[in-house]
Fold these 2 entries.
Entry 1:
Amino acid sequence: MPRAIRASERLRALLLAWTVAAAVGTFAAAAEPEQSGTTASAAGEKTPAPPSPAQWLERMNQALMTRSYDGTFSHWHGGTVEMLRIIHRLQDGQVAERLVSLDGSGREFIRTGSSLACYLPDRRTVLVEQRPGQESLVGIPAVNAQTASFYDIREIARMRLNRRATHVIAVSPRDEFRYGYRLWIDDSTAMPLKTQLCDTDGRIIEQLVFASLTMAARIPDSAFQPEVSTEGFRWLRNDTAVPAPGPTTVWSALKLPPGFRMMLHGAQTLPGSNAPVDHLVFSDGLASVSVFVELRPTGGAAAGTEVQSARVGSSSAFSTTSNGYKITAVGEVPPATVQLIASEVRAEETATPAATRR
Amino acid sequence: MNEELDSQLSAMFDDELASAECELLARRLSRDAELKARWGRYAVIAATIRAERGVRLNARVARRVSVLVGSEPTLAAHSLPRRSARRWWRPVAGAAVAAGVAAISILWLRAQAPPGGAETAAPLAAVIPSRVASPSETARPASAPAGADRYVVPPPARAAMSVVPATELANYVVAHSMFSPPVARGNLLSSFMTSESGGTVAVSAESAQDPPRDAQSNPR
């Protein structure tokens, strides 16, 4: 049986392959997330080393925002794995970023300075949003002292991952309004080489693992050009000429999940529409929820209450109507959290009739 | 792990496994984590074997591998199995340049997995960067654009059943991402990039006579 002979030869090759694979460390990315997470919880000892776990989170955030890098990573969610590529550059205070789906959808997200473009080949659509002025790196929620009271943040292990020394930081939510993380943070660059998003019970619901990552000194402008052909695509832009109106109606949330507070309140226009949208951002320092308030077109379904919910991977969206306004909450939080927040947003002037309606 | 599986795996890499067997093995691969890990290692070695066929590996990897190969004559001996072997190898090898060796196993597995269905060729074709000369075996549709550095994504088989208008949701997600903490933002945008292709966007709508806050038993 010729195959048997070859098999024994192969065995030697296989042995070598194991050595190679171990030396190269590339197979880490191919593996599915471990179901039990035992490797992570085994080490268990708290390290009194200078940077605290919370400081590691902060370092990681800084690295993600301010370093220049080019990496390929796998995204695992709901039993599906897809490869993506991220290119990020901070140069002369300008952020350029490109995220490409290397598999099925071929979607690309490209940010250059204050311009955001979203290429959706699966919808034959390009969304272009011109954002006002310089807002890069400001308004991003940061880990604060309060964050620690809603998450348990600790270093659970130091681990070698893809040939790199990493700190494994576990961020466990103390209630059901937010997700937790397990982060493999690179010791020297503070980049998260592996990220697991976990629910309240610690079950992994999403995982990102870098297969390759280069901290590039220079990234050319050409790296931020889309590769997808846009022939026959529909282009939707936002109307930058329409001045964002002053806040004629003040929106606020009557009640919020513990730890969330309003970080920002503004108005903008979105691609494909020239009607202004109010945008509120709520955050607990690690998770954030945006609420968009739009005046519903009069007539049609404006009379009834319409409730919709959607999932985008692990993120949630919830939409409802109130007094002729459509209120939509979006965030990387459990569905109940966006639902709670969206349902609690009211115009301050009209709060009374809304409240007496039941 | 038994020898038969090993032999099947290696036969698969030489394209000497009957297609029915291939499919069986692929199906098994998708279920068996250990087997999959082993497959990943095979992918590494096979990719290194073919490194001399014009696929440039990461220089450091290549160096290490060449040291190991130099000390291992057996590997060098059967490093060039010819025949029809590269029917599916070419695209995989091309992808290696862009995505690194580790990505290969995932890509290939996904392309072979039964639920992937009709679009088996598309993901591989799309992932090959245009800078690398596209091997003829990837069988681009005739309508592919002549422009060398563009790729075309085939339209989805059927429209996603979405109640929230898709572009509106996309707008919201993108606008939100500007104010999302970095780590959460990575998850959000990655999900968004992959969501509808994988069919993981679930949308539900209710006619909602009950406003949701009644369910919260909100005392005010």
Entry 2:
Amino acid sequence: MYDPTLWHRLQFAFSIVYHYLFPQLTMGLAWFLVFWKWRALRTGEERYAKAARFWARIFGLNFAMGVVTGLPMEFQFGTNWGEFTKFSGGVIGQTLAMEGMFSFFLESALVGALIWGEQRLGPRRHFLAALGVAIGSWLSGYFIIVTNAFMQHPVGHGMSEDGTLHIADLSDYLLNPWGLVQFAHNQMAALVTGSFVVTALGAYLALRGRSAEQAKLYLRHGALAGLVASVLVAFPTGDLQAKLVAKHQEPSLAAMEGRFQTLPSMVEITLIGQPNVRERRLDNPIKVPGMLSFLAFGTFHSGVRGLEAFPESEWPTNIELLYYSFHVMAGLGTLFILLMGIANLARWRGRLETTRPLLWVLMLAFPFPYIANTAGWITAELGRQPWLIWGIMRTEDGASKIVSSGNVLFTLVGLTGMYFVLGLLYLFLVGHEALRGPDAVPHSHSPYGEPEALSAAKEKGTP
Amino acid sequence: MIELWFGILGFMLIMFSVLEGWDFGAGALHLLVAKTSAERRQVIAAIGPLWTWHEVWLLAAGGTFMVAFPKAMATAFAGYYLALWLALWSFMLRGISLEVGGHLPDPLWQAFWDLVFAVANVLLAIVFGAALGNVIRGVPLDETGEFTLAFFTHFGVRGRVGILDWYTLSVAVMTLLLLCAHGATYLTLKTQGTVHERSMRWARRLWWAVAVGFPIVTLETSSVRPEIFRAAAERPLAWLGLLAALGGLGALITGRRLGREQRAFAGSCAIIVGLLIVLGVGLFPVLLHSTIAPEFSMTAQQAASSPRGLQLALYWWPPAMLLAFGYMMFIARQFRGKVRSS
């Protein structure tokens, strides 16, 4: 308990898990807004503009939460992980600075205009604002994932004389193959979250018999995007990600599967079971023979090394949680494809809006992509342990030496209280907007002076 | 190359100070210049859709600090641990109060978030003022190359100092006054009616307070870090900064006399920019000054990234900066002019 690294890890884990609840919806929802704004522009149909207007209100709240909870993340590299920053800041600083310069400036300038500026900007420029925010949020995701990919699979760096890392090849670093796969996998998963949320609200409206036209739009577009994204999360992106782990992070693969013994071929995959690290076995396993060899290496005849093939100092530090988070992610991902497959079948037969049991399931399913996304990130980050930068720096060497446990616990407790209040506010306000539905007159007024300032501008003759 | 990156970092921090400065000031004053709910909406409308863009300057400066001077960034952020978290919490409160305040039409709900918004802005102005004081006064860097700052120790400016002492406190109060004066000048430009009149009155009072306080703080600075003045006097850029500040003062006075609100506001910006240029030039090349012994101070050269990294970052930084200004112009064009009370 006197090990400050533990508190630093808890604080970072807590703040990043909480933070990422919001960007995944931002990144998923952004393209729905772009699509609807584009359809409204092309067809002139009010229902698309109305959908974009309604979801922009929820998007705005979600975006604000993402900004507010994201603020501490960049600072924590310096405050809590000072040794890591001293060692690798010359490399990861590139992408962290790029995120601020390329995406935050873009998003921050346009998001207010997206949410409040529809009248003022006119349809074309308002569409551009939506597009800019969507691009900005995905760019931001890319820079962060490249930074994470460097920690998972370091490339493009060199060692300086003073024992710190420096950037050797910027394009190698930015085009890290691990990063490209991880980005594709992660962005598809964000689209799954966006699709499930849109579908869930459509299902709620359909079940209540309100705003029938909007409900149909949300259900149809949500289910279609949800199916495409759920499939792409698993294949090819998830599959490629698993093969990268199998190739470059062998002990992680073994721990994710709860595999202690090495097998030369036909290695089975575990569907359910509880890892027993002390006894070095899996309790109550249900297995499919040969599948792990096939999924990880593309052939049934390849062997998989178990944890016993590696020294314990290279084992991931929390094998049980790593195993469960991986299985929760993979299991939920499979169920998402199934559910969205059924929804699209119903849609094809014209019964999506009327099949009440299906609507109930779709309405209640939206929390699960959040769980799957979180479990996926826990898999990635616990799988990287005991390394902070794979093969180069261990986690216990990265925390700020100078900051005492007492100070970290002080801020962790404060952060927990603050985030609890933020969470209550978010649920209350989003629930309020969502339950009022797309046909309600928005009583949230613009903080930017619409429409008074608009009339003032009109008097002056500047539209 | 190292001078260039010191300059870039300085540029970004100065931009942040001027831009967020008027948001902090206007936000801190808004309970005083706006009494009714409609008047408060008017102030928030004047702060406008670009306050997040202003805030990003700090985030982008943080990233730039890391890419250019990782060692100093890590040492400073870990050392300022508690102060930074206080600033982060204030930022969170401010952002959330602006966003959620307008989502319910209930008057109590709005009054509460207006209060949170004002308190967060006052806190932010004070915290950034204290941070500025700390940069000037220095931090207790010792032979380990690390430091840690408690909120307060013995309130003196030598040896094992804390975040708050008599000097940093006076810089904090000075910063609060200056940013409030800056914010009031901005509100004078952007508002009409009673808010406009109250802002004019507050701007006059606050600028007088600045005029009284500034010479005192300057005298204090010359006793805490006399070498800043010696270094600045030898460097032409500092004289340019001084010229800008004096020009700004002239524009502020004549602008207010003649009712030229844009000129007065431009003058207010020039004063802040000019003073910070003088300070930045005087501080170079020291990033972290040691209050224990000068040889423990960390200079830009010692903290810099590899030459290759600095060079690579120079390829993408200028186009990114141009793009950032492009977005701002796009939005500022849509929202120009005064906002009115409904």
